[in-house]
Amino acid sequence: MKSTNGWLILRAALAVAAIPFILAMCAQAQTFTTLVTFNGENGGQAYYYGSGALMQGLDGNLYGSASGGGVSSDTGTVFKVAMGKLTTLYEFCAQSGCPDGQAPGATLVQTANGNVYGTTYIGGTGDYGTIFQITPSGQLTTVHFFNGPTDGGNTDAGMVLAANGNLYGTANTDGPTGYGTVYELTPAGQFTVLYSFCSLTNCTDGGNPNAALVQGTNGNFYGTTRAGGANGYGTVFEITAAGKLTTLYNFCSKTSCRDGSYALGTLIQGADGNFYGTTGAGGAHASGSVFKMTPAGKLATLYSFCPTKGCVDGAQPYSGLVQANDGNFYGTTAEGGTGTNCPNGTGYGCGTIFELTPAGVLTTLHSFDGTDGATPFGGLVQSTNGSFYGTTYLSGTYGDGTIFTLNTGLGAFVKPQPALGKVGATIVILGNNLKGTTRVTFNGTPATFTVVSPTEIKAVVPAGAASGTITVTTATATLNSNPAFHVAP
Q: Does domain 22-407 have CATH number 2.130.10.10?
């Protein structure tokens, strides 16, 4: 059986070897609070490059997974954070041989019935990882065992809940052609491989997808690979629910990879319909970039990190972005910034939190200094209360990382799940203080709805509705949705 800590160290070492370290200077801090310090027993090393963000649950609490830690075996946990207090829901490797998996770390996803789904990197019957389902009370069921050559393995990514109610995801390695897969999982547990990477000569279709998928407003799925493609440095792809894959962009198409390489973060589709993402390497200064890509595959670099000596702005943005309800993009870098008390001991900075406007103007909001965490591999999530939440992989009091929140003064909003659906479909709307809701509209069209709890509404997409903002009217506030909801054909 593979050692969890050994695999984590190896994965981190490979990334460090592949990406150059950058010097760090000063960064501006905002209202920042450390909520939880991992101590090993309550989890640790909340680790995943591309999509290890926390998830806001139907109950308004935050849920996540840590690749290490736990009282018994140090093989990872699933946890809940409520009112700043962490509760461990499950410790992996509960049985001999770890058939339940080990080393989780990707973002969790919750379906309308309240069950939460996630993945583990290794463990399971073949030690290629698993897909699990867990209830909010902590009862875990293994839904699928990856077996490597047939369906893929070592998945780093979480899954996306699609408008049809199925879950879609990627496996990083193996599969029929050896370089990872795209798969579908139904609520009944039926697993289907939709695509196996490196199916084309010289892997021009890409290989080794680290990031989760995102469903576009056209119903298709979009993602990235960190390897393969025409230039060998990864791709952006589109894939249909039937498994037809189209390569939209090949990274490193410009001299010295000025367009970026090593894309590990999950894409998002912005309010303007374009896709936004990050690269962990490449860019104008070889320290990573933020890019915008049209649905047709035309890519433009919005920002290249480390333009001046010291990397005040950060370096190596391994995680994806979130577009907040102010229209700007927010994310993290794993290195750079002003921190000097960093576990790498080399003065390269502990990482940053940044804000980027759609025009490409970047502001460093927080620079980690080790005492509050270091190396935020995972991305951010914006809660419907307006604040941002995230995790760090290292440092804090015990060296095992932290959970933090950043308040930039943004107001409350509501969030549709999923953000795409047909007329007549029932969707979940997340929020806060929803108990007194009197009206729900889809771009102005009234909808029938049920207030399930102060943090959850179920609404039916009304006939005649057009794509646009969902508005929820309560006794005390009018809340608009982020993102907007799109009515599927």
A: yes
